[in-house]
Amino acid sequence: QAPFDHQAIRDQFPALKQTIGDHHLCYLDTAATSQKPQAVIDAMNEYYQLNNANVHRAAHQLSTRATQQYEAVRQQVAHFINASKSQEIIFTHGTTESINMVAYGLTPQFTPNDIILIDTAAHHANIVPWQELAKRSGATIKPIPLTADAQLDIKAYEQLLQAKPKLVALCHVSNALGTVNPINDLIAMAKNAGALTLVDGAQAVAHLDVDVQNTDCDFYVFSGHKMYGPTGVGILYGRFEQLNTLTPMLTGGEMIKTVSFDRTEYGELPNRLEAGTPAIAEVIGLGAAISFLHGLPREHIHAHEQKLMQYLQAQLLNLGDVSLYGIANDKRQINVGSVAFNLAGEHHQDVGILLDQQAIAVRCGHHCAMPLMNELNLAGCCRASIGIYTNKHDIDQFIQALNTVKELLL
Ligand code: PMP
């Protein structure tokens, strides 16, 4: 393997080369969406320039090429998360759609006696679809509490499992705090209690190695755009037997075997859950993102990101007048991807605007995790999040800018 040359990786992201005003762009909003490497942009352009055709339909060469490329990405994704077969990979438009498809598709299996457990740190995309399922079926939702240091409360979880919930919905990594759930243990506990399990991996796949067979969850979902791929494409992984029981949320062309006005017979997986023309260029772009990630020395990247996270946390604390959220008391786990903070007594939006004036891109607000913000007693917070391309200079530029904000406001 080639030696680790971080600058060479960063150089592949054209958006990071720009300046805004007098400053270099400092992009610390990867958790919202990552920047894209040139290889992803090129793959999508090539599809439109040379191979543009609909998939699975026509008998002509462009369609054959497009179909081959599209189906090859399904295999790539299966390999990427170690699914046992490619039919277990469904292309969706993103994490949100994937969770909606599961919540909708499971509805006939739920009754008013059923309980759904949801991580308090969940993103709204992993809350609202379950609330809709609860409305349709009469089932009850119970949040899994957090400990005082904002980690999932394992003892409380154990107790909740005694009521034999029908489904447990967890996040792998919290998008607001960067906290990491010990997902394999949590899934094993849920399975012992007889529950179905869904893991929201939107913030995990770009940073951690995911192995769905080892994790043993029923569903694992994520978005392409947070892992250096394009927007508009996401993944629903499901255990084959479980996917096969889902009622399709979308029906129409592509997902059928036969149609008459009397009755329609649905097709086999994966087609039965992919109605209509899919996001072909985006799927091909996602394939290029996975190839890009596969080409990198994974262990160096992990070490680089962990070091940056530690440096970022330490520099924020050094600055003074900064509160960090979601840091485990025993520091057993380094947060992944994101650091949540507030500047003493200042509104997060004011801090965000003043950082933006210095070309620092962070996200400020409730981070689509209002129940978590309530739990932490926060109206909102700022979040700095890193990616594969982030370097120490970004962190230094950010800390310097935050120091300027501090001088202006405090
Ligand atoms: N879950 C988590 C943990 C997320 O971070 C996000 C994106 N912020 C989502 C779900 C929703 O993803 P998307 O908007 O791509 O559907």
Automatic annotation (TrEMBL):
It holds the Pfam family Aminotran_5. Its cofactor is pyridoxal 5'-phosphate. InterPro entries: Aminotrans_V_dom, Aminotrans_V_PyrdxlP_BS, Cys_dSase_SufS, PyrdxlP-dep_Trfase, PyrdxlP-dep_Trfase_major, PyrdxlP-dep_Trfase_small. Residues 27-398 form the Aminotransferase class V domain. The keyword Transferase applies. It catalyses: (sulfur carrier)-H + L-cysteine = (sulfur carrier)-SH + L-alanine. The keyword Transferase applies. Gene3D superfamilies: Aspartate Aminotransferase, domain 1, Type I PLP-dependent aspartate aminotransferase-like (Major domain). Its EC number is 2.8.1.7. Keywords: Pyridoxal phosphate, Transferase. Belongs to the class-V pyridoxal-phosphate-dependent aminotransferase family. Csd subfamily. Catalyzes the removal of elemental sulfur and selenium atoms from L-cysteine, L-cystine, L-selenocysteine, and L-selenocystine to produce L-alanine. This is Cysteine desulfurase. The lineage of its organism: Bacteria, Pseudomonadati, Pseudomonadota, Gammaproteobacteria, Alteromonadales. The gene is sufS.
